Amino acid sequence: TVLIPIGNAVFNLNFCKTLYIEFKFCAMEVYEFEKCLLDRLEESMTVLSWKDEVIPASQVRSEWSYYIELQIEPAGWQALWKIPRIICEELCVRYPTVVFGYVEQVIFKNLKAVFIIQAVQDVDIHLPEKHEVSLEDLWPTRDQENPELNVERTADCIDRLRFFYTHVWMPWDNDNDDDLNWVEKHLESRIRFCYDLRKRTMKKTLTAHVRKLLTESKYLQQRREYLELGLTDEDEGDLEETVSKTEITDLMRLHLRLAMIRNEIELLENPEMRRIFQEIKFPDEDYKQENQNVMTVEKVCDRIFLVMMPSTLQQQIDLIETAKDSIPKNALVQTVKTLQEVLNTCNIYGSIYLSPGRHTVKFLENMVDGGKICGISIKKQTLSNSSDYFSKENIIISSSDDESTLFVFDSSFVLENVVLDCRNVQAGILIKSGTVCLRNCILVGNGKASTQQGIICNKAASVILEECTVERFATGISVMNEALLHLRNSNVLNCKIGIDWSNNSKSHFNNSKIINATINGIRAAAVFKHQNSKSKCTILNHLQEWEDLKQFHHLREIAILKAAKLMCLF
Predict the structure, then answer these.
(1) What dihedral do alpha carbons 440, 441, 447, 450 form, nearest 10°?
(2) Which chain positions lie within coiled-coil regions (predicted)?
């Protein structure tokens, strides 16, 4: 385990021309299963389908509890608990957080288990030893202390339960009329809908829209359950005095939003209605040259959109004059009202240039491969030196959707000269694949939530930050399995954890700083340790310690630091 707490010190990685860090460890293996549509349908039908018997929504949970009781081990098996985001927020711990332990008892009726925590990845995390957790949040490990237990069957059963309650069961199903046969009405159509999303039989824009709605609905349901649980715990006689108007208003807002999502999702479950919805909501590209339906690759590359905020004529002229230096002379340029309009309706574009001001977008996952969003400003100021990130002179991009992600990329993209206002979202940028480059950009979080992340770089993806600042997040940058991070002349400021490394992740640092990280500047949790463990690890607080370590390992122009060499547990 390599933990590098920074505190109030400046951690300057510019001690050599380039620092290259490759982090490796052996992860704890869990059971995972790959199943096709027919397998999933057959599994759920086995649990819920009885001859000539109507299964209403209120009975579905009971049927699963009967099945679970016959299939899984009642106690003693070890597992990883992947703590849900809503619980991480309640416990004030970072997200994602994974802990290791064993099941003391399975509560079959509630589809829950009493879980005893044995080890954590972060020595700074202190949680109660015993928790009541949902079975679908548990991942049985392949290595068990008791080899007599049939853990593979247990894991397979939990996998079936997890798939059902993650992809098939909807938050509003508990409110369904018991006169309806839930299985006949929803089971097959929901499973097919899930696999349609996976196979991408829909437009990319619609797929992203549906996933966003489903993710939001799950989170809202968890929030609703927590609020309702708090209301029922209050003494009925003092209810009006103890329950604030804010809580009641929040609960009403959640019910209203869930009802809106329900209407839309139930419409989209029908393939024919989905096709019509897709044509209306996400039409084909609107911006085409007159009398020309197909554009050559060369012309696509030179295609430019200007998003101009309301301003005086002279201001618009000055902005266009400034943009001339960056736009090719033969480029096809078109002005549009909003950034959202271009991203929603244009499937092909070269670059989008934004005027100063605030540009609001909804959750997006349909970013064009090789595209670029660039801010234009008359003042040639460096954003990272600005005292006011949200001043009207800056180019600000924010989200109109709370509890979502500002941008999701699954291909190469460039962001330049913009401030990403991430204060009301769960994550700023999620990179699923490809290489995303940020130049002279600022990402700003709210500095309060324990689960908010600035940049998440998924497996095999890459992110490059040049002259950038990432500030006020719970975790500034998460570098996942086999992902690659480049930091060039960039700063990570005022985050709880500056950079979070995962298995086989790689990082390049050049003249970059991590400042005022309150927990760890760089976190690389490789092993699970007991919460009360007094084991110490390599702690590097000062630049000289890195210099000494570099000399000790004979690292020259490129320093390669491996976790095994830095391990110092005693």
Answers:
(1) -120
(2) none
Phi, psi of 247 (to 5 degrees): -65, -45
Residue 57 lies in a domain: yes
Do residues 546 and 522 share a domain?
yes
Are residue 18 and residue 116 in the same domain, yes or no?
Answer: no
pLDDT in tens for each of the 570 residues of the chain?
333 443 333 444 443 345 555 545 446 789 999 999 999 999 999 999 876 678 888 899 999 999 999 999 999 999 999 998 888 888 888 888 899 999 999 999 999 999 999 998 777 778 899 999 999 999 999 999 999 999 999 999 999 999 999 999 998 998 776 668 899 889 999 999 999 988 878 887 788 888 888 988 888 888 888 787 766 655 455 545 555 667 778 888 888 999 999 999 999 999 999 989 888 877 764 444 443 444 444 444 567 899 988 888 888 888 888 888 888 888 888 888 899 888 876 666 778 999 999 999 876 666 778 889 999 875 545 554 445 787 778 899 998 876 678 999 988 999 999 999 999 898 999 999 999 999 999 999 999 888 999 999 998 899 999 999 999 999 999 999 889 999 999 999 999 999 998 878 888 999 999 999 998 888 876 556 666 655 444 344 444 444 444 444 333 333 333 332 332 222
Same domain, 460 and 403: yes
Q: How many structural domains is the chain composed of?
A: 3
Q: Which of 221, 208, 257 is nearest to 405 (CA)?
A: 208
Strands laid side by side in the 427-431 sheet: 2-4, 520-524, 497-501, 475-479, 453-457, 427-431, 405-409
β 10-12/513-515 pair status: antiparallel
Place of tokens 């909501």: 281
Q: Same structural domain for residues 271 and 164? A: no
Q: Is residue 119 classed exposed, middle or buried when 0-12, 13-18 and 19+ CB atoms within 10 A define those classes?
A: middle
72 SS3 class: coil
Q: Which residues pair with 179 in a beta bridge?
A: none
Cα separation, 568 vs 570, in Å, equals: 7
What are the phi and psi torsion angles at 2 (to 5°)? -120, 110
Cα separation, 498 vs 518, whole angstroms: 9
| Cα–Cα distance measured from residue 213 to residue 102, given in angstroms and rounded to the nearest whole number | 34
Stated as kind and residue range, the H or E segment containing 227 is helix 204-233
15 and 140 both lie in a single domain: no
Question: Residue 129 burial (CB < 10 Å; 0-12/13-18/19+)?
Answer: exposed
Distance in Å from the first CA to the final CA of the chain? 12
Say how far apart CA 442 and CA 423 lie, in whole Å: 12
Q: Of the candidates 131, 92, 3, 126, which has an alpha carbon nearest to the alpha carbon of residue 531?
A: 126
User: Three-class SS of residue 529?
Assistant: strand
77 and 163 fall within a common domain: yes
